[in-house]
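Collaborator request, handled under Task 6.
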Amino acid sequence: MEKEIDKKNLVLREDESIGTVQIADDVVAMIASLAATEVDGVSAMAGNITNELMSKVGVKSLTKGVKVEVLDKNVTVDLTVTMEYGYNIPATCQAVQQKVKNAIENMTGLTCSDVNIRIAGVNMKKDK
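Structure tokens returned to the collaborator:
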């Protein structure tokens, strides 16, 4: 029932009497990016895009630092994040993986098989 139209879109549901439901890879990347930045300890995605700035910038900036591959209703996500100083890296990454996996599966109905995280840096807060 689901088929791949092109590399950027996946047909989730097709019914000749009603129509089709398609989801773009950029939508899945945006969901993953927003879910990752909601976790405590994650400072920003690659390119220094914070959660507050995400609502004000364009779609292309939202998915910076996120790579998504959708094949046969299976999603593989690669995230590049900047961590806050003082947080446990393995625990924070596990929380990010779980949050991203749950967000993608709940919002799209796709199965998230892998959430790979690369830490690009550590954000040091400056004392005033």
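The cover message to the collaborator said: "Residues 1-6 have pLDDT under 50 and may be disordered. The radius of gyration is 16 Å. Please let us know whether this matches your experimental observations."
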